[in-house]
Amino acid sequence: MTALPSNNPAAELTLADFEQALETVHKVTRRTPLETSRFLSEASGASKVYLKCENLQRTGAYKLRGAYNRLVGLSEEERARGVVAASAGNHAQGVAYAARELGIKATIFMPLGVALPKLQATRNYGADVRLEGDSFEGTLEGARQFVKDTGAVFIAPFDHLSVIEGQGTVALEMLDAAPDIETLVVAIGGGGLISGVAAAAKLRAEKEGRSIRVIGVQSENTAAFQPSLEAGHPVTIKTKPTIADGIAVARPGDLTFEYVQKYVDEIVTVTDDDIARAIVALLERMKLVVEPAGAAGVAAILAGKIKATGPIATVLSGGNIDPLLLQRVIGHGLAASSRYLKLRILLPDIPGQLVRTASIVAEKNANVVEVLHTRHATELPISDVELELHIETRGVEHGQEVVEALREAGYTVRVGERY
């Protein structure tokens, strides 16, 4: 990715700024673990893969860092006016927690359809939560009107220097724990996390006389940065639905756009299937619960989007996933990994066929979890029936073995398709 010229240069960041921010945020944040994953190392070809577990951070995400660093810098007069934020989740909880610790009144606007666990957590941190707007734009408008009516200080989720410096403390902790990191992989929504991480990492590496590569990851359904970089300024895109709602931002921030231009080397995109597979891998291999946006970096590694042989590190930026969504994502991730297959099998309408197909599946050590047997589908030949089998397998090769065994037995098989 080539950095493009800008007419509005952002404020110069310094390593001292990030080191000061690190001292500040450690008053409330945890120094989260930096784990290694042999599974991801073998899958990617990298010598090591590190995972920065911000899903284990207080409030369940890195957002507390930026929120606290921003609120600490408020004047007494600003603190007296209170703060307001608009968020569907992690930023809301970060601001609410930071405000409680500093004795500041916080009002948080959240969309009407916000997940109940996020709503309850934000209230439990002491914030006054207002539900407004069917979409985030409506929620944001409610917060802006509140600022006009009350004079409260609006706390931006990413496009503020103090927020960016707070988020960049993640990189300093990573490099303190693993000085050998050569490539950083970071999810991008509005750009606050990657701006801070990229700047802090490159400034630290420069001081040490070496280089470090930073790669951003966006959901392909909300990838606003690449067209913005090509245009030379932030542009608003039309987003599509994505499970990674934490990085579903239609327009880069003005400040973050400048820093991404300057410090980020490359941006890649991942699909929802990639993200679902990553969530399942993190659960199964690392025993870590990570929300879709937080798994974007791992998704890029597993999808082969990161070309690196030396040590790679990525940030598991949050773990606040609704249990109902997690249930759906696990099923989707298993299907995307061919661990869960839906087979449609055309059978002659004679006795014994159901037992025969079940025996073939069992002989291949696959597990049948659901069965639908019908002779009433209008597209079927009158002498045939359709058997729909949902089976669990060990992966792509095992699933192919089951399908081939059924076909060798003379059956017509479709994987997830209608005849």
Q: Quick recap of the structure?
A:
The chain is built from 16 helices and 14 strands. By secondary structure, it is of the alpha/beta class. The strands form three sheets. It has a six-stranded mixed β-sheet, with helices on both faces. It has a four-stranded parallel β-sheet with strand order 5-4-3-6, with helices on both faces.
Describe the protein's architecture and organization.
With 419 residues, the protein is an alpha/beta fold. The chain folds into three domains: 15-61 and 160-334, 3-Layer(aba) Sandwich (Rossmann fold), CATH 3.40.50; 63-154, 3-Layer(aba) Sandwich (Rossmann fold), CATH 3.40.50; 338-415, 2-Layer Sandwich (Alpha-Beta Plaits), CATH 3.30.70.260. 43% of the residues lie in helices and 18% in strands. Helix 6 (116-124) links the parallel strand 4 and strand 5. The longest helix has 17 residues, at 161-177. 47% of the residues are buried.
Give the topology:
Layout: H1 15-25, E1 34-36, H2 38-44, E2 49-53, H3 63-72, H4 76-81, E3 83-86, H5 90-102, E4 106-110, H6 116-124, E5 128-131, H7 136-150, E6 153-154, H8 161-177, E7 183-187, H9 192-207, E8 213-219, H10 225-231, H11 254-263, E9 266-270, H12 272-286, H13 296-302, E10 312-316, H14 323-336, E11 340-348, H15 353-363, E12 367-374, E13 384-392, H16 396-408, E14 412-415
Parallel strand pairs: 2-10, 3-4, 3-6, 4-5, 7-8, 7-10, 8-9
Antiparallel strand pairs: 1-2, 11-13, 11-14, 12-13
